[in-house]
Design a protein that fits this description.
rod-shaped; 8 strands; 8-stranded mixed beta sheet; about 20% strand; Rossmann fold; alpha/beta
Length: about 300
C-alpha cells in the first residue's frame, strides 16, 4: 500500500487550479505530520512494551536467583557443619595419637636407659676381684684405680678391666666397679671414655666414678681429642684413613667401636656441672701416633 503523501503527490500533479494546488499542498503537509505522529506513537508503544518485557524478565531472574541463593546458603551451612564435625573428630584422633606417641617415647627412653645400663654394668658379667692381695694393700694408703688400655702411672694402681687378663687386678664394668662410695683416692682413666655415648658417659659413668671418690679424691681422664683431630684432618696433617679409624675406633677392643667424639671443653663443662672442683685441662691436642689426645683432671669437693 502506498503512503498517504505518495497518493497526494499524484493528485498534485493532476490539479490545474491554484486553489487546488494550495489545498493539496496543505493536505500534503498535514499527511506528513500525521504520519510522523503515528510513527512516533507506535515506536513509543513498542519501547514501552519492550521495557515491560525486560522488567518482567528481570523480576523472574531475581526470584529464581533468590531461591537459588537460599538453596546454596542451606547447602553451604550443611557442608560447613559436616566439615566442622569431621575436623573435630580428626583432632580427637590426632590428640589420641599424640598421647600414645608420648607414652611410646617415654617407654623407648626407659628402654634406652636400661640398654645403656646393661652396656656399662654388664649384668651377665659380674664384677670380680682377681688380685685380692693387691686390692687389700691398696686400701691401706688410699686406693688408686686405673681404668683402660693406657699405661698406668705406677704399679701401685689397681688396674680395672672389662675382661680377664694377666695384668688386670679387677674385672668389672665401668658403671659397676666393686668399691664402696667415698673409698677411692684416685680414678685414672685412659683411652676408655670414647667408647661411651654422650648420655651414658654424662648420666651414668661419670656420676658412678665421682660417687666412688672420697672427698678430695682426684679424677684423671685421658682420651682422644676430637677437635684436634678434626683440625689436623682439615689441614691435611692426617689422612682420611686416620680420621676414619679415630671416628670408628677398633671394633675388636674390649669396649667395641667408638661411640663418642670428645671435645675437651665439653668434658670440662660436664665435670664442673657434676660438682667437681679444680677442673684443669692438663694438655690438649697432644700427638699420640696417628691420633691426638687430651688430659683433664678434677678434684671432688
Amino acid at each position: 500500500m502506498r503512503p498517504i503523501f505518495g497518493r497526494l503527490l499524484i493528485f498534485w500533479e493532476e490539479a490545474s487550479s491554484a486553489r487546488m494546488k494550495w489545498l493539496y499542498r496543505w493536505l500534503f503537509k498535514r499527511s506528513i505530520d500525521l504520519e510522523r505522529r503515528l510513527t512516533s506513537a507506535i515506536e513509543v508503544r513498542l519501547i514501552e512494551k519492550s521495557f515491560a518485557l525486560e522488567r518482567d524478565f528481570l523480576r523472574a531472574v531475581e526470584r529464581r536467583a533468590g531461591a537459588a541463593s537460599q538453596e546454596a546458603r542451606a547447602y553451604a551451612d550443611h557442608s560447613i557443619g559436616a566439615l566442622s564435625n569431621s575436623m573435630r573428630a580428626a583432632l580427637g584422633i590426632v590428640g589420641q595419637s599424640a598421647r600414645r606417641l608420648d607414652k611410646m617415647d617415654c617407654r623407648l627412653a626407659e628402654l634406652q636407659r636400661a640398654i645403656d645400663r646393661c652396656m656399662v654394668s654388664g649384668p651377665d658379667r659380674p664384677s670380680k676381684i682377681i688380685n685380692p692381695n693387691k686390692v687389700a694393700l691398696a686400701r691401706v694408703d688410699g686406693m688408686r684405680v686405673h681404668i683402660g688400655n693406657g699405661d698406668m702411672p705406677s704399679s701401685n694402681y689397681v688396674r680395672v678391666g672389662s675382661v680377664p687378663r694377666p695384668d688386670v687386678d679387677v674385672v668389672a664394668q665401668m658403671a659397676n666397679l666393686p668399691f664402696e662410695e667415698g673409698e677411692l683416692a684416685e680414678i685414672n682413666v685412659s683411652q676408655t671414655i670414647e667408647y661411651f655415648s654422650y648420655s651414658v658417659l654424662n648420666d651414668i659413668v661419670l656420676p658412678h666414678w665421682i660417687a666412688l671418690l672420697k672427698p678430695g679424691g682426684v679424677l684423671v681422664l685421658t682420651a682422644p681429642d676430637g677437635l684436634a683431630l678434626l683440625n689436623a684432618f682439615n689441614s691435611g696433617e692426617i689422612t682420611l684413613d686416620d680420621y676414619r679409624e679415630f671416628v670408628i675406633g677398633d671394633a675388636e677392643s674390649d669396649f667395641g667401636p667408638n661411640r663418642n667424639i670428645l671435645i675437651p671443653a665439653d668434658l670440662t663443662s660436664a665435670l664442673k656441672q657434676s660438682g667437681m672442683v679444680e677442673v684443669a685441662e692438663n694438655y690438649t691436642g697432644k700427638r699420640n701416633g696417628n691420633s691426638f689426645e687430651f688430659r683433664i683432671s678434677a678434684r671432688k669437693g
